[in-house]
Design a protein that fits this description.
2 domains
Length: about 190
């Protein structure tokens, strides 16, 4: 009798892939450090002593302070780029989520409006029904469509922009687009 052992896939491949993607720069730096150490031992090189000798050779020109300052600047510049890139990813995700939510809202609202047409058709066929109510109904539907369109055209996703796009406007003025579009390059915090 052969025993069959059930193996479960706990997603180790996915976890390893996520780990490698998350720490790719750290792993690259580790591999580079190991490569430098191995090549230094194989070829009898001493990169640290060479770096120290380089700094001592430029000491007479007082250029070493510029190198150190440039190194500090580059470290902070790289940190700033990393933070900027992370913020850009967050902003892109916010826009994707917002657009998906708006598309879902459009779908729900359009279904509602189509169902409300049944009531309008019934009211139109009812003798003696007040025509002013039907006109008010049409205006309410038109305003609702304009507000949804204004929400769809927001450029910068923020609470203020959303509130501004649905703020009540005088009759005939379309809310939205030019009031809420923000073309700045800085991500919101």
């Amino acid at each position: 009798m052969i025993l069959k052992v059930k193996t479960r896939n706990y997603g180790y491949k996915k976890k390893i892939t996520c780990f490698l993607l998350r720490y790719k720069l750290t792993l690259l730096g580790l591999n580079l450090a190991i490569l430098i150490a191995v090549l230094s031992n194989i070829f009898d090189l001493d990169p640290f002593d060479r770096l120290v000798s380089l700094f001592s050779s430029v000491e007479k020109y007082e250029i070493d302070e510029i190198f150190i300052g440039a190194l500090v600047f580059l470290v902070f510049f790289m940190a700033e780029l990393i933070l900027w890139h992370r913020n850009q990813k967050i902003e892109i995700e916010k826009v994707k989520i917002y657009r998906a939510m708006i598309a879902s809202s459009h779908h729900i609202l359009n279904n509602f409006l189509n169902q409300m047409l049944i009531f309008k058709m019934t009211a139109e066929e009812t003798p003696g029904f007040d025509q002013d109510i039907l006109k008010l109904y049409d205006e309410i539907i038109k305003d609702a469509k304009q507000q949804i369109e204004a929400l769809s055209s927001i450029g910068k996703i923020s609470q203020e922009a959303i509130e501004e796009s649905i703020k009540p406007r005088p009759r005939g003025q379309i809310s939205g687009q030019s009031d809420t579009v923000d073309n700045t390059c800085c991500p919101s915090s």
